[in-house]
Design brief:
- It is a single chain.
- By secondary structure, the chain is an alpha+beta fold.
- Helix content is 55%, strand content 19%.
- The chain has helices at 3-16, 18-52, 85-94, 133-137, 149-154, 163-170, 174-177, 214-221, 240-254, 270-280, 282-313, 315-323, 328-364, 373-399, 403-408; strands at residues 60-65, 71-72, 75-76, 99-111, 113-115, 118-119, 124-129, 141-144, 158-161, 181-184, 187-195, 200-201, 204-205, 209-213, 228-234, 265-269.
- β10 (181-184) and β11 (187-195) form a beta hairpin.
Length: 410
């Protein structure tokens, strides 16, 4: 018998025992659904986060003081000192690499913003920024304008606000917000711009923020302990390693580090954030694989059981096939084909359900649709292996039946 004939016979056998075939098929489908669905949701979330971090871009890096790492060689390592305003500005002026460099500071993370009788909760983030900050962060102004260099350096009392502030204070009317005066504590600020909505990132709303000129932030919120953040966006992403190397050498000079001293700062590339996230999702992936495999083991046992029952029920049929010339190999191939076909049908149903559920979860999380070709390929291979393993013993048993004894079987 050729391959198509084996498939036709397998389908006829499945139709003849439709209920138990469907039940076994559904067990396999749920196992594959768990496997593909969870892995699809994880991958979609990662790709979505990659898109969100494109605001930083794969061509950008942050420079921050070195964090404390405990003891090394019996010596307690200290946290690097904060970047002072002078150090940050010296770096910005001296860094001649083809890139944009911005300096910013965190003014407050729990500010309350007032406009007339309206007031927000004390959970608004206020940041002092320079004129390059929005470009390096990939933030767009929906209405109004950005700060210019003179305003950033001289410290004008102006502000750019996020969409949540517009909703809370100006009833979601961005045009009404322009040129109005808001209060951050006792500081009066004129609104000159409204940011495009950016949603939330890592449990923090990107729209609940107020941006003020860097010098204004330094004047009202700065102290000797304030750290000034440095962000660099390289024009050509392929040059990011060269840019970080040049930035490292320049910063060592600015920080006056001796040749034998280690860097007291760290450079974090935005693409490394995705790497960290991918590493942390390994356990979720393993859990998904474990859940899927446990279900598939149960399905494999069930499939082997119905194949053994099928061999018993079709003993006389096997005897007739052997009597008219069927070989052991053809009998074994027929039963293996049936087992693999049931497994693959269950796998295909599981793939459809898994992709659907995984992307529904992703959609609810605000991500984009993803068709996981890699996991689908793995699922198909897994189903084929499950079918072969489950059907091998029943197929061997059927192939070894004695034709005369089989024909006597009632």
């Amino acid at each position: 018998m050729d391959f198509l004939e084996n498939v036709r016979l397998a389908l006829n056998s499945i139709r003849g025992n439709i209920l138990r075939s469907v039940l076994t098929l559904m067990i396999i489908a749920f196992g594959i659904m768990a496997l593909v669905g969870i892995l699809t949701a994880i991958d979609s979330a990662i790709y979505s986060l990659s898109d969100n971090l494109s605001s930083l871009g794969a061509n950008s890096f942050d420079i921050v003081p070195r964090d404390s790492r405990g003891r090394r060689g019996g010596v307690q390592e200290k946290r690097g000192e904060n970047f002072t305003y002078k150090q940050a500005m010296d770096f910005k002026e001296a860094f001649n690499f083809p890139a944009q460099t911005s300096v910013s500071m965190n003014c407050s993370s729990n500010a309350a913003i007032r406009y007339g009788e309206e007031k927000t909760n004390p959970n608004v983030r206020v940041s002092g920024i320079d004129e390059a900050y929005l470009d390096t962060k990939g933030i767009e102004v929906e209405l109004g304008r950005n700060f210019n260099t003179r305003e950033a350096l001289n410290g004008s009392n102006i502000a750019i606000i996020g969409k949540d502030i517009v909703k809370l204070l100006f009833k979601d009317n961005a045009e009404k917000a322009l040129d109005q005066v808001i209060s951050v504590g006792n500081i009066k600020l004129k609104v000159i711009g409204v940011l495009k909505s950016r949603g939330s990132s890592i449990n923090q709303s990107e729209d609940r923020q107020v941006l003020i000129p860097l010098q204004t932030g330094k004047r009202y919120f700065g102290s000797d302990r304030t750290n000034y953040n440095i962000l660099v966006a390289v024009n050509d992403a392929t040059e990011i390693d060269n840019a970080t190397a040049e930035a490292t050498g320049l910063l060592r000079n600015i920080r006056r580090l001796k040749a034998a001293e280690e860097n007291d700062f760290e450079i974090t590339k935005s693409d490394s954030l995705i790497g960290i996230i991918r590493e942390n999702t390994v356990y979720f992936r393993l859990a998904a694989v474990g859940i899927g495999l446990i279900t598939l083991i149960g399905a494999a046992i069930g499939l082997m059981n119905i194949m053994l029952v099928s061999v018993t029920e079709r003993t006389r049929e096997i005897g007739i096939c052997k009597a008219i010339g069927a070989t052991r190999q053809s009998i074994m191939t027929q039963f293996l084909t049936e087992a693999v076909l049931i497994s693959l049908l269950g796998g295909l149903l599981g793939i459809v359900l898994g992709v659907l559920i995984g992307n529904v979860v992703t959609y609810l999380m605000g991500g984009n649709f993803l068709f996981p070709w890699a996991w689908i390929t793995i699922a198909v291979i897994t189903c084929t292996v499950v079918g072969l393993v489950s059907g091998l013993y029943p197929a061997l048993k059927a192939a070894r039946l004695d034709p005369i004894e089989s024909l006597r079987y009632e």
